[in-house]
Amino acid sequence: MDSWAEMEEQILEELNLHRMKADAEVFSRLERYSGSEAGEAAVDYLVQELEAAGIEYERHYYELMRSLPVQASVTVKKSGEPDFTVEAIAAVYSGEAYGLTGELVWDEMCTKGQLNGLEQEERFRTFKGKIVLTYDISFPFYYEAARAGALGIVAIWPKDIHHHDTMGGVWGMPGSRDRDLYPYLPYVQILGQDGLKLIEMVKAGAAAVGTEAAKGVEAAVGTEAAKGVEAAMGTKAAKGMAVTAQMDVAMDNRIVRSSMPVATIPGKSESFVLLSGHYDSWYEGMTDNGAANVLMLETARALEKFKDRLNRTVVIAWWSGHSDGRYSGSTWFCDHHYEYLRKHCVAHINMDICGCKGSNAVRFDMSGMEGEAFNDEFLASYNSRKPLAYRALDRSSDQTFWGTMTPVSIAPQFYMDDGQTPQPPKSSDILRPAVMPAAFGVGGPFYWWHTREDTLDKIGDDVLARDCEIAARLVLRYAMEKPLPIDMSGFMREMQSYFEAFAEELDPDFDVAPVLASIALTRKSVEKLSDAIRAYPKQDADSILIRTAGELVRLKYTYSSPYGHDYAVEHQPYAVFSSLLGVHRDNTPEDRYLMSQTDFIRQRNRMTGQLHEICEAVELQLYRWQVQ
């Protein structure tokens, strides 16, 4: 073979759909909860298949804080009406409740869109001692409701199928300072149709209380006014105009021991590409994430036959603790192999929710270091129309390795395109990217995600073959191409655009001018490094690209120490700066505004300091190459 393009063709020919379908059949018989007998049986099978293919691997054992719901219900009571019970499902890391009873209040502000600090303060003030009915399924809401003294949360999942969710703010493995991020407030989700019924009941009850209160105030006169108000607001409401809810929640929250197989296909270099996906599941979990598990195994089988030609090593990891441990497995691996990842990992390809029957389109969530041209070129053959622009990575799906300075991170997203619905254009507002087509969850065609209906029949043979091909091609690209194919100049242009937009929109108290000055200097250093890599083609540039490009990616996606992990909360790129959009003295509680100023100045110092270190690293590397 004269080029790795020919090698790619031969590897793709090795991918065997029949074998993948047989693997999927095995996985469909296993409900793969972390640390469970079926979960370990899935690992046994993967290990058996790796051994049969002669692939080097290690089975890692670790402990995690696993959380699984056992039973949940909400019983609704209103005077003059029969009690009725609403079927519910508890979230991972919910607290337990047995006969927990309180007034059910409707969180009307959850429908109001983005709220400022003062509005949020007013919102949570009404929760003390109440059970809260809401559409807000975010952890920040859950956490603040617990701090406000809510008794419990009844969240409404808009679909009429029970969907599992997680209420844990810790990313993966908790440290001793993370205890407060497990409020263990009883939290359940109910179906959309039941939620609408409860909303109407609560609104009707509140309206009745309000009407009676007004009558009481009107009747109260002179010195008897206070008594009249008390009677109207107290005894009338107490007669049962308000709606009462009883929560019953049983959980299996405990530490368990789990294992994870990690395969290694050695290449000519210690630098490696990480292909990963979680094997734990809800129920059968065949598109989330059984399909990914079998295509990863098939990719390993194919690559093993060509390992002598790989320029870089390939590591393939099947994580547990994703759904029932908030990414515990990938976090444990990151913490326990930090130096290995930090020094040698050039790319992470994460496969999550694959093989969905009916999918005919693909887009990428990426770090941005990969380049827009790559996005369009690679995806062209997998879409009937022009590929959608890349979207910045989500804080989800085992995106655990941003702190290890991994330059390339790609999470393929598979969806349906009817060929007629207008595609979202690339947004001209970098702070408000276009909304991408829904694939799973609320509004998506692959509704079965995190439900009992994620069964073997949801996998399409042609889609599984396509998704396996995509995974194999992505891994091979970054295992073979030298120098590492990235676009640092494009990344720096994007960074500058972000901070120019911040300069326009942030309150004057949040001055990003020093960051823009540092970006200008770093852009020059990046150009010098790119020129030098072309001038010294025989030099291995992986280390300096991890140190520079990887650090730029870390600055974009994280806000804390590279040795720790940010909260398991969705955030935009340059998270602290993005979180300050719309924050002003006149709409934010005084103490919160002071905290925001502290957050800002520390992040600004971090940005300018780390950009300066990148420039220094470039200069040192250029000197070393010149004298060699």
How much is the average pLDDT? Answer: 93
Element-by-element helix/strand order: HHHEEEHEHEEHHEEHEHHEEHEEHHHHHH
| Helix fraction by DSSP (H/I, runs of at least 4) | 40-55%
- Give the strand tally: 13
Proportion of residues in β-strands: 15-25%
Low-confidence stretches: 220-235
Question: How many helices in DSSP terms?
Answer: 17
| Major sheet description | 7 strands, mixed, barrel
Shape: globular
- Give Rg in angstroms: 27 Å
Distance between the termini: 32 Å
Q: Biggest sheet: strands side by side, in what order?
A: 1-2-6-5-4-3-7
Structural class of the helix and strand makeup?
alpha/beta
List the helices and strands and how they pair.
Blueprint (H helix, E strand, L loop, with lengths): L3 H11 L2 H12 L8 H16 L3 E23 L2 E10 L6 E10 L10 H9 L5 E4 L4 H9 L4 E6 L29 E5 H28 L5 H17 L2 E22 L6 E7 L7 H19 L8 E7 L8 H9 L1 H7 E6 L10 E6 L5 H8 L11 E2 L15 E8 L45 H20 L7 H18 L7 H23 L6 H16 L17 H5 L10 H38 L1
Parallel strand pairs: 3-4, 4-5, 5-6, 8-9, 8-10, 10-13, 11-12
Antiparallel strand pairs: 1-2, 1-7, 2-6, 3-7, 7-9, 11-13
Helix pairs in contact: 1-12, 2-8, 6-7, 8-12, 13-14, 14-17, 15-17
